Amino acid sequence: MIIFGTRGLNSKVESGHFHCPRCGRDKPFDIIRVRRFFTLYFIPLIPMGEAGRYLECKNCSGTFDEGARYLDPEVENEKFHAAFMQAMFRSMIVIALADGPANMQELDTIADIMTNMSGKAFETDDIRDMVQKCVGDSLDNTLHPVADGLSDDGRGMVIHGLHQVAAADGRLLDEEIKMLYSAGNILGFRKKAIKKFLSSVES
Ligand SMILES: [Zn+2]
């Protein structure tokens, strides 16, 4: 019996540097070409043309449209910064809601942090509006989109902010501690690092 078929083969055709939207900074890439081959006994014999090309970030392995190589770092940085502010805002609300409806101290703390970070005044009412929008949000869906692109300082800033909100009412509940660990995990911190942070702020 003769066994024949087709198969896609990937090969690197070009490399360079680009602004990876997922890493949030300049990273090396490969352009990968996918070609279809006619196979005989599973051995690719006759090229049947190109099936497509894509760009792969060599740092995070994220795959993008080939055009991603031309992304403007300045525009991308601005976009990332906006996404980071959203992630910070929403994740603080998620942790404020961990122990039931957000109380005044929690809302004020979030308003203070957002004001400090953005340089424009956030009022408690702005925060209340956001609380409505965040019903059903989780740390996972708020932090994941930016986790890969954050520097150590950025990741630390998130944990500090979340902790300030959780501790705003003067006590840290088990549920809140659990959420801080889970945020640390999403951001790529070791459990030990979060433990150390928590004991440093306790004393
Ligand atoms: Zn990347």
Automatic annotation (TrEMBL):
Signal peptide: none annotated. It comes from Aeoliella mucimassa. InterPro entries: DjlA_N, TerB-like, Zinc_ribbon_15. Transmembrane segments: none annotated. Residues 87-194 form the Co-chaperone DjlA N-terminal domain. Residues 19-66 form the Zinc-ribbon domain. This is Dna-J like membrane chaperone protein.
